[in-house]
Amino acid sequence: MKFGPVPIDAAEGAILAHSMRIAAGRRLRKGVTLTVDDLAELRRAGVRTVTVALLEQGDVHEDRAAERVAAAVCGDGLRCAPAATGRVNLYATAPGIVAIDRGAIDALNKIDPMVTIATVREWGRVASDGLVATVKIISYAVSDEVLSRVELVAEGALSLRRPQLRRVDLIETGPAPSRKAAAAIGGRLERIGVELLTHRATPHEAGAISTAMREAEGDLLLLLTETATSDANDVGPEALRAAGGHLTRFGMPVDPGNLLFLGELQQRPVIGLPGCARSPALNGADWVLERILCGVPVTGDDIAAMGVGGLLKDIPERRAPREAREKS
Length: 328
Description:
Number of helices: 10
Largest sheet: 6 strands, mixed
CATH class of the largest domain: Alpha Beta
Strand order of the largest sheet: 16-15-17-20-19-18
Shape: elongated
Distance between the termini: 63 Å
CATH architecture of the largest domain: 3-Layer(aba) Sandwich
CATH topology of the largest domain: Molybdenum Cofactor Biosythetic Enzyme, Chain A
Order of helices and strands: EEEEHEEHEEEHEEEEHEEHEHEHEEEHHH
Strand content: 25-35%
Low-confidence stretches: none
Mean pLDDT: 94
CATH superfamily of the largest domain: MoaB/Mog-like domain
Number of domains: 3
Number of strands: 20
Helix content: 25-40%
Structural class: alpha+beta
């Protein structure tokens, strides 16, 4: 692609690089392909040269280039919007979380600075029609050779994981089920298209909790204890073991959400929720919950890797907000 000022007589079919006002109420916008009529108006306005982009053999117009890149990265559960000004947006076709091949996206963005893609965070939850990524061609054209390299490295780099577990049981310790907890946790599930099957209260005792766990029938079991889980041998994890399950992880480097535990019972995942799950605000439990609901395994190493970016907005309802702790 050639870029720069050219005489009006040599500009037909070129792409205008900068918007120009040529008459009262009449403006030529950047990115238009100049026609004979456009050039005639420019001459009448006294313009003798224009700054343009001239495509050469092997060049691909920015819109077609963006379409090719988007088509390459677009995997299952995503759709591409029409191209405009060298940009194509990718959207989710249903609620879910976004699977990203980080290596492929990084490789794409390194091939040529004129070809870029920006995405939501890895495993980020999106609603149906939620924006997942945007492909932007920086210049007015890219060579076919560059696009071929991009297509090769980025094939299927983005996809949507839909919920696989559809029914959830919530056990809450205390005298009665909390409406606040039901609203916050039920809202989380509803946003991703999953049903809260049962919500029951049980005494804050390992025996009572373990009985409730064994009786649960959902695909996923959530436990919200009256007091925070403070140790791997606290009431919640002990109840899980007493029910015949096992603990795989206690604690996570995400705040709010530190006091989460993760386990398994009868081949079903169990999440011990931190107290901050009573608030609808984002916390570490959301990241674990959304992955598990969508059939994405969560290991101890996965949780350990959540620390970078894991300092989330504090929740005012917490008994000891960060700033209050600093002042005490």
